Amino acid sequence: MIIRKAFKFRLNTNPEIEQKLLEFSGCCRFVWNKVLSLNLYRLENNMPIMWKGELSFWLTLWKKSDEYSFLKDCHSQPLQQTIDQLERAFKDCFDKNQPNKRLPRFKKKGKSDSFRYPQGFKIDQESSTIFLPKIGIVKYRNSRRIVGAPKNVTVSRKGGHWYVSIQTEYETAHDPIHPSASGVGIDMGVIQFATLSDGTVYAPLNSFKGLAAKLANLQKQLKNKKKFSNNWKKLQAKIVKLHERIASARQDYLHKISTEISENQALVVIEDLRVSNMTKRAKNKNVVQKSGLNRSILDQGWSMFATMLEYKQAWSGGQVLRVPAAYTSQTCPCCGHVSKENRTTQASFVCVDCGYKNNADVVGAINVMARGHRVLACQASDAVMSPATGTSKKLRSKLTL
């Protein structure tokens, strides 16, 4: 089995190195925007877009021209990788199987500054240094050992710091076997971030909510500054740093929880939540309340958490199942009765048919786990749960798994 991992470290740069990193990312951004504008023009005029072969030819001509000769200062590999990434973005856009397909967008300076080396780099873990072609030797903060053979490195800027992400690959003799034999269902929420079917509860971090007032104050100050003035740039840097702090805290929290769960559970069943649909804007009624709920949902990072669980379970030999979330909080795990009256409050669940009582989030997690067991038993994710006693015809027609 081939396992791929990424190891991300912060670079210890100096002004000279940072200038080169900015030049490389700027050249890659220019190539992306230049190629994108050409292909968008061709699409608007009903012409076939250019792919890698033609674009590589144009890139060579741009390097030889006087107008774009600055591209020669950048290594050829990051520029070629930019063309590859844009080609992949166009293919995803035209792929009917992509759920969120859209045309590639132009890149702005200061946002998503990055470039990639597929080869030519050298990593020395003993001295905590990495050699980047045409840039030189750069030290990085070596927080852990790199496992596997390095395949490519991506240099990116986040906030006021530069980072290097090293993708590695290694092969195991056999598929990993998870040390545990237990499983758990997870109910995601806003009041409680995650509730497990065994009763374990993880409180929400709410990293954005805790710093929202400070962020709003800085943004209000920024609005009153002259755009691109020195004071405007200072405030903009503070806002970027605060956003980085919020994102880093959320990511760290999600990593800790997902690691703990994946180490202790061989089977993890989660709700297949459509976050993009859940966070759509309200059009006419309850606009303020819906916007607040949307912020709370997005502050949790449910999609990121599910992704972390999936790849960590794959590394350890575990399994993650996604099941529909419909009626998990309204179904009695004891008798199977489905009704809105079963859950009259946010926290408590009382079955109106058999009298079963429990925490509403725990009930949701138990039902999620039960649906996961049915998926495994039927060996198909579209298995239909048999109608429960007391369930209305309307609910039975919608109720799956």
Automatic annotation (TrEMBL):
Gene behind the chain: ydcM
GO MF term list: DNA binding; metal ion binding
Protein name per the record: Putative transposase
Domain Cas12f1-like TNB: 302-368
Family the UniProt entry places it in: In the C-terminal section; belongs to the transposase 35 family. In the N-terminal section; belongs to the transposase 2 family.
Residue ranges constituting the Probable transposase IS891/IS1136/IS1341 domain according to the UniProt record: 167-281
Swiss-Prot/TrEMBL keywords: DNA recombination, DNA-binding, Metal-binding, Transposition, Zinc
GO biological process: DNA recombination; transposition
NCBIfam families hit by this protein: guided_TnpB, IS200/IS605 family accessory protein TnpB-like domain
The Transposase putative helix-turn-helix domain, residue ranges: 1-40
